[in-house]
Amino acid sequence: MTASRTETTMLPQPQVDLLPKEGVVAVEHGVDGHTVLTVEREHLLDVLKSLKETPGLDCNLLADICGVDYPERDARFDVVYHLGSLEHGHRFRVKVPVTEDDATVPSAYGLWKAADWFEREAYDMFGIRFDGHPNLKRILTHEAFHGHALRKDYDPSQRWLLTEENLMTPKWSTGEQKNDDHLDTQVLNLGPSHPATHGTLRTVARLDGEYITEAECEIGYLHRCFEKMSETHGWEQVIPYTDRLNYCSSMINGVGYALTVENLLGVEVPPRAQVVRVILSEFSRIMDHAVCLGANLVDLGALTNFWYFFQIREEIYGLLESCAGGRLTVSYARIGGLAHDVPLDFEEHVRSLLARIPKFIDDVDKLVTTNKIFRDRTEDVGTISGEEALAWGWTGPCLRASGIPYDVRKAYPYSGYEQYDFDVPVASTGDTYARYLVRMEEMRQSLRIIEQAIDNLPPGPVITDDHHVALPPKEKVYTEMESLIWHFKLIFDGIKVPAGEAYGFTEGANGELGYYIVSDGTGHPYRIKVRPPCFAIYQAFPHMLEGSLVPDAIAILGSLNIIAGELDR
Amino acid sequence: MKDVSTVNVDRGRIPLSEQIYLGPIVRGLTVTLRHFMRNLFGHKDVATIEYPEVKRQYSERLRGRHILTTRDDGSLRCVACYMCATACPAQCIRIVAEENPDAPVSAEKRPKVYEIDLLHCVFCGFCVDACPEEAIIMSRQHEMAFSSRAEAIVGIDELRQKGPIDQEDLGYRPYF
């Protein structure tokens, strides 16, 4: 059986003697390989600071901040931080219990800028206040929204009409004119319904002539209460909803979710399912990059490439549909494996795609890579240094374009990625052009992985035979009493995931896609927090805009690949 | 950081040959011209379909509109066990059960009402997976238009299989 990260004791562990002591109430070892620190609020900042700055710990990535509500506890909320060190590979989960009356913690914005939007989300959803946060206001819901939606006592069925007409208006957009403005202040709304945003994103920009001097983003237009809804659904029933997170590469989301739940359950995925998951995930990644680059190029006026890339996408959808029965929303992953085996002509189909796709990538390569108009338009546009990108919590191709070769598939291999020979593309300049080059190369590397995977597609089952987790095969349900009983039990009671928590992360098309899952042992998830990679990326966008031209804003936005489905959840 | 095999994709400064637009432009034009010629004379690579005159051939796993299958005597196979309604993540299935007095023991329960709200449905196929009777399967019919929300709630009459099962446009179902 191939090693999978479901037994995540494989994560590197930190040196115990380096860990901060003061204010740390408990140190545990999570089933997901994380070192879990429970910290008193008074010492939170010191602990975070020492985790970040102690040589040997060096937690330079703040992956996620979220709240969890335990209404029956005295300290009702947990504020949960997920930290990681790219140098050493170890991962931390820091939990801070706070009471409802005094739900305040110090802001970590001074340590990692990534805390900016994550803290705002925790405030929006739980009402936890972050002292010292520069701009603590609601983020996913409307400013006039009442209550905090992810609290357990919030009733989701209550509805009211928001009649406030005023949109989010940044302070600077209404204030006095600044001295250094050359012209009257112009405020430009980019979005939420704008052809170049490719999603419901709104950016308010203050202009000085053609230059943007200040900008602010408003998100949440596509908020669908994914996290709240999953608390009322069974573990398996969440899978169709994960398809709608990053809908350009829905397979990857389902696999990431399934891996995390499998980690909590401790079930092993059959090798065939792992390989099929890898193949389809890599195809999804190619598709996602194709859409991102195609759309980015359209925005820059290079329409033809869009057709070439969309032909790739169309053909991959054909493959996904022949396996899963859905094109965009595949719902193919299951906890413990896959919904059903791939069709008989799968291998042939994959090989024909492998033969066809490089041609389209080459076509685009010839059309634009050396084209001076394109290079002039993208080089030194939206430049961000590796350090700064990491501080904002960037991961994925955008981070690699800034010179940091962090790829979850290499750093924490799962589903057997360690068996495949592939390279991580990196660029050093960190501009829009570099992000284009990295994505182009990643598509080729994904093809390499698929080639190796399809050569070694093992026979066998595609889902675990543990009937606490997976439905028995239909022919047995029709003929055997015992299987029928298992079938009934699984449908009516759902999977029982043992109480506990895990943070599972995979390499999504945009970067580290994390699921922080808390189970209380019943048939429903207690809390699911998705760490969408583009949420962290997009929070840096308004800062990248400062000083850039309006048309550059379009070029930068396209190269970041912001998918509203996963941004707003 | 753990040593990972990386490939640097930086392209450095623009070489002189690319400074003068001409080379890359000609190269790009050959690509588009090639596609143009192929599409004009060969029809080899044309990815577009002249929908709705021509329709894409979908696989037999496509999850389209549901079909309620029937037994040989024309009665519904459904025994109103509520498994599909329980498994449905969108909670779009409504069943009211009733007794079928004349039927054998294995079919003494039947649905009086079986409704699917197709506007709520997410077409995940969980109902098909859940059904122990193969009473609900899916067709490949994916073109659905309604003029009102009420019309989108379809009942037994609309969902029941119309003729012999092999003449339906079968999509996602167990065994295929």
Individual helix count of chain A:
20
> Strands of the biggest beta sheet of chain A: in what spatial order?
1-2-5-4-3
Mean pLDDT across the residues of chain A is: 86
Radius of gyration of chain A: 23 Å
Stretches with pLDDT under 50, minimum 5 residues of chain A: 1-9
CATH architectural label of the domain at 226-369 and 447-568 in chain A: Orthogonal Bundle
User: Whole-Å distance between the termini of chain A?
Assistant: 35 Å
Structural class category of chain A: alpha+beta
Oligomeric state of the chains? Answer: heterodimer
Taken as a percent bin, the fraction of beta residues of chain B is 15-25%
The number of helical segments of chain B is 5
CATH-defined architecture of the largest domain in chain B: 2-Layer Sandwich
CATH top level label of the largest domain in chain B: Alpha Beta
Structural class of chain B: alpha+beta
> Looking across the biggest beta sheet of chain B, what order are the strands in?
3-4-6
* Percent of residues in beta strands of chain A: 15-25%
Question: Termini separation of chain B (Å)?
Answer: 48 Å
Summarize the structure.
Chain A has 569 residues and is of the alpha+beta class. Helices cover 38% and strands 17% of the residues of chain A.
Outline the structure in words:
The complex is a heterodimer of chains A (569) and B (176). Chain A is α+β, with helices and mostly antiparallel strands and 569 residues long. Among the domains of chain A are: 124 residues, Beta Polymerase, domain 2; 266 residues, Cytochrome-c3 Hydrogenase, chain B (Orthogonal Bundle), CATH 1.10.645.10. Chain A is built from 20 helices and 16 strands. In chain A, helix 7 packs antiparallel against helix 14 and helix 7 packs antiparallel against helix 19. The longest helix of chain A is centred in the middle third of the chain and has 29 residues. The radius of gyration of chain A is 23 Å and the shape is globular. The two termini of chain A are 35 Å apart. The N terminus of chain A is likely disordered. Chain B is of the alpha+beta class and 176 residues long. The longest helix of chain B has 21 residues. The model of chain B has no long low-confidence stretch (mean pLDDT 84). The chains are: A alpha+beta (569), B alpha+beta (176). Chains A and B meet through helix 5, helix 8, helix 9, helix 10 and strand 13 of A and strand 1, helix 2, helix 3 and helix 4 of B. Strand 13 of chain A pairs parallel with strand 1 of chain B.
